[in-house]
Amino acid sequence: MNNKLLKYKKSKFGVFLIKHKKYAPLLFFIAGFTWDSLTLGRIDRLYDNVILCTYMTLLTVSIYFYNLVDSEKWKHKFIQRYGKYLPLAIQFFLGGLSSAYVIYFSRSVSISKTASFFLILIFLLVANEFFKKRISNKYLQFCAYFFVNFTFLSFFVPVVLKEMNTTIFIISGILSLVSTLLLIILVYRSSPSTRTEIVKWKMLGMILAIYVLINTFYYFRLIPPVPLALDKGLVAHSIAKKNDKYIVTYEVDDWYVFWRDHKINFNRKSDQKVYVFTSIFAPTDLKKKIYHVWKWYNPETKEWTTLDKIGFEIIGGRDNGYRGYSYKSNLINGEWKVDVITEEDLVLGVVDFTINTFKSKSKPLIVTREF
Predict the structure, then answer these.
(1) What are the distances in angstroms from CA 74 to CA 69, 137, 190, 338?
(2) N or C: which end of the chain has fewer CB within 10 A?
(3) CA 251 to CA 368: how far, in whole Å?
């Protein structure tokens, strides 16, 4: 066995890995993100749920055993011999979970109001530990674990129960808090180094602070309402339904404006209706009331004025989202936006546009698509 290991270390591949071992955590982090980006699809798909549950379970196991490596109980055992690889495993699973959250939470047409929470996910994704010394910080370990655990349960529980509301979110938070504290207690009792390195009340205070922070984000409607996601949102000139298809006619922007389907400057006749079309992804059998809130920007008061709130119920399960639309007549010129929200006022996305009644100098690029 030792001869094989020595031969491996002297091989070109072994020499390369030893020479560049300081970059290993970064490579594991990138690997986790790349793998999720290529394989994750629907949040209610069996494969996605199995992958995320596996990541969460293995992250829990990796953190537990990593903190037991110095215990006499595991001396000369399997865990102690291979314990040096556990930081890489922790980084991989944190990277995998963080990238999955970024993928799911970014699937909205607009994240203007929920950008702050989304930026935290981006920060966690980018700042996931690149060095072993930092991953050994037990406060950091358990705080990162609690955050990804809470985020995971906040959309996994609604998928399982096929229901989404404030009560479900509170249940998800309590489950994540209890499970994290149980892990900390288990590690604390089993690991001599943990009892030396952490102060119990400081650790509890940090966990509770994150718990309060996430609930504060939810209270102020700053968390995207995953597992719901706004798949498509655009302003249109006309919408008709035919044979279970929505025929949508709208103006597209120049080819280099690749991040948006519709053109923001909506040119129309004075008596023309204005339509807003949305398709919203929801897990199979999940029912939810959705609203289109029409708002006009008042240049005198410099505030957004709500002019109408049009609601309809969606039923989850369709790959490309549940389709729906609303329309208004006799709208005045200026800046408009339609907030797509849930009953709890959680923002799914925002459709922005500016209404002009004068004729555009350039020929509009009008397209008609089926959804």
Answers:
(1) 7, 21, 11, 60
(2) N
(3) 9
pTM attached to this predicted model: 0.80
Domain 229-370: top CATH class: mainly beta
Structure letter (DSSP) for residue 262: B
Average pLDDT over residues 269-282: 89
For 186, the enclosing helix (H) or strand (E) is helix 166-190
How far apart, in whole angstroms, are the C-alpha atoms of residue 263 and residue 285? Answer: 34
Of residues 161 and 36, more confidence is placed in 161
175-184 confidence digits (pLDDT tens):
999 999 999 9
- Most distant pair of Cα atoms in the chain: their distance: 85
Backbone angles phi, psi at 82, to 5 degrees: -110, 15
Measured CA to CA, the distance from residue 31 to residue 362 in angstroms comes to 47
In 224-346, beta strands by DSSP E: 229-236, 238-242, 245-252, 265-267, 274-281, 287-298, 303-315, 322-328, 334-342
Helices 86-105 and 138-161: angle between axes, nearest 10 degrees: 40
Where in the sequence of the chain do the CATH 2.60.40.1930 domains occur?
A: 229-370
